Amino acid sequence: MSAALLGLVERSHEMEPDRVGSLAAEAAVALGALDCELYLIGLEQRHLTRFDPTERGRLERLAVDGTLAGHAFITGTPQASREEGLLWVPLIDGVDRLGVLGLRFAQPVPDELGWASDLAGIVTLLLVTKSCYTDAYATAVRTEEMSLSAELIWTMLPPLTLSSPSVSVAGILEPAYDIGGDVFDYAVDSSDLFVSVFDAMGHGLEAVSSSVMAVSAGRHCRRRGDDLLEAAERIEEALFRSSAAEVYVTALLMHLSLDDGVLRWLNAGHPHPLLMRGGRVVDRLSSTPQLPLGLGPVSRSVNELHLQPGDQVVLFSDGVTEGRRRGGTAFGEERFADQMERAAMAELPAAETMRRAAHAVLDHHEHQLRDDFTMVLVHYRGYAGGVSSKL
Known about the structure:
The protein has 391 residues and is an alpha+beta fold. The protein folds into two domains: 139 residues, GAF domain (Beta-Lactamase); 233 residues, PPM-type phosphatase domain (Phosphatase 2c, domain 1). The chain contains eleven helices and 17 strands. The strands form three sheets. A six-stranded antiparallel β-sheet has the order 3-2-1-6-5-4, with helices on both faces. Strand 4 and strand 5 form a beta hairpin. The radius of gyration is 22 Å and the shape is globular.
């Protein structure tokens, strides 16, 4: 077993970056499987697509909801169909879900298959590193043409999920192929979590350019050690300098001290986040109304709240609650709060909570939204003496 897995790693160093799946299949066969196929999750997180770089036609897709492969993806645990000789093993980078491996055996599936999870772990690491050198994985899972504005936003995003002993973060953007100006960002270290959400005026490339500038300026401020007020001022200056026309973005800048649970936030024209405690929405993190960033220097204030271990904070843009299809009704904050509470009752992982919430909004509007939207879930677990997570 060790020789097969080490051989996979050694051969990966100079392989073509789109051959992760074929090398995984060779290792799986050497370990006793009949075959191994790689399935990757699409941007809309509704289907798992079989990856085969040699096929240029429509690739096989499996629905996430209602299939054994999808259940492995949702739960993060291997799922076996012993009679069919199939084993589905999730591909998880930290907590970031990339897809599943489908292993086929002579019936029934053997009981002792500890190497399958080891193989999936190596494949996951190879996917993360090799995808930087090829477009093959990104294009294979697309179900429709992506707008240029969405392409730019996806390039800017951090990983959709983060987990550490002290805190977890999960974010999502929709519609996946036509994002207008919504974006989120975060960073964590051993004592601090920083989260920002921006929603630029307008749509298309003009809005995206403002979002990209806001995220870049925010990262610059974060790495300088600026506080929230200084960051808001510098982001505003960057927006003024980057465009001759009037541009603005609504913004939610947030800092959470992992040591003591003190949450500080600055809200510039953005919807108020929801505070969840004990699985219920107990409050809105309201603040004094402030203008969006980019409308001129104004007096701004920072709000503060002490979180309890287990508290969750839900950030979202107005596209979640106010966006609608032509002639339709808004999803609304009450419906959104109910969706989050039902996910909490089901004890779903943060990433799965966001996936289902986004699909609930899209399904309500029959996928005909006139505005894009962002959602970010922050779950404070309490100080754990350090962070061992992937950024």
